Task: inverse folding
């Protein structure tokens, strides 16, 4: 074979491979234009599945609940969901599915707190301030969130960072005829217990009258759901994503508590602390509820004015 022949063969082979690659590339790009799916899209989708940010297709999808014809079993009546229920339902479901919920249950001794509140609520009412237990609970939450800032954080959208917030906006669940809404007290860490009580009352009234503005239900860093005025001993509140935790409060009751020498009657408040296990572990959770219980027992600190 002549010296120039080998070089010519290699050149032809290279040109052929380039033409084939170009043709394949053109077909791929044409298909991408038709389907709207690029190679980078596929890689991003696979990465989302591997990191848990998206559900895998096929068997990993959630099974559908059965469709039932209830009329076969008796008379029925259809009652449309309220607008609030239609909005909150999918959000609650998304939070329950995507966030690994764990609930830590605990008890807080509020004997001294309630005794002091009973003395203070009369004078407060004369000033137009309903001094409810929830105001003290929110104040204690501010202290606990300051001590454990991860509970006040959010997980970044890519799941690789914690968004540590330098502000403290507290949401609270308000019961209305249309369903539960969550008004937000902004900069709760800059308000004393009387200011918190006053804003609680104003936002609760606006919620019941359906006059809450959108911005009054946005930006919460932590939420409290109190059912103490109704009853119950414990429950599992669903986290209000993108928050990473929520506190549930049930009805307090008088219980015998051993003090090392004898049983004494103490007013105990049940706490149910649900948290996102990707951000908060069990040890931090129980430390948080323990600190919260201690804060509720330190009434003088709760009543301190904000400088």
Result:
């Amino acid at each position: 074979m002549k010296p120039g022949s080998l070089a010519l063969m290699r050149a032809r082979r290279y040109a052929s491979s380039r033409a084939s690659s170009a043709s394949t590339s053109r077909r791929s790009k044409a298909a991408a234009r038709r389907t709207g799916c690029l190679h980078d899209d596929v890689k991003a989708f696979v990465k989302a599945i591997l990191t848990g940010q998206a559900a895998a297709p096929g068997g990993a999808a959630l099974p559908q609940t059965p469709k039932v014809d209830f009329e076969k079993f008796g008379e029925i009546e259809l009652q449309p969901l309220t607008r609030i229920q239609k909005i909150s339902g999918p959000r609650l479901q998304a939070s329950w599915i995507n966030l690994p919920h764990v609930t830590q249950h605990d008890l807080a001794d509020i004997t001294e707190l309630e005794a002091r509140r009973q003395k203070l609520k009369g004078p407060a009412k004369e000033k137009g301030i309903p001094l409810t237990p929830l105001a003290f609970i929110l104040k204690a939450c501010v202290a606990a969130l300051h001590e454990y800032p991860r509970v006040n954080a959010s997980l970044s959208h890519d799941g690789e960072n914690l968004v540590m917030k330098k502000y403290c906006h507290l949401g609270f669940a308000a019961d209305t005829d249309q369903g539960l809404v969550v008004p937000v007290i902004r900069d709760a860490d800059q308000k004393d217990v009387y200011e918190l009580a006053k804003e609680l009352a104003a936002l609760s009234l606006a919620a019941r009258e359906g006059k809450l503005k959108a911005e009054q239900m946005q930006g919460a860093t932590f939420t409290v759901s109190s059912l103490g005025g109704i009853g119950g001993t414990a429950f599992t509140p669903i986290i209000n994503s993108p928050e990473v935790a929520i506190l549930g409060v049930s009805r307090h009751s008088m219980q015998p508590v051993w003090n090392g020498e004898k049983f004494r009657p103490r007013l105990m408040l049940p706490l149910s602390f649900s948290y996102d296990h990707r951000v908060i572990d069990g040890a931090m959770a129980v430390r948080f509820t323990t600190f919260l219980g201690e804060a509720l027992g330190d009434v003088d600190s709760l009543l301190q004015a904000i400088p």
In short: The two ends are 96 Å apart (CA to CA). The chain has two domains: 3-60, 83-302.
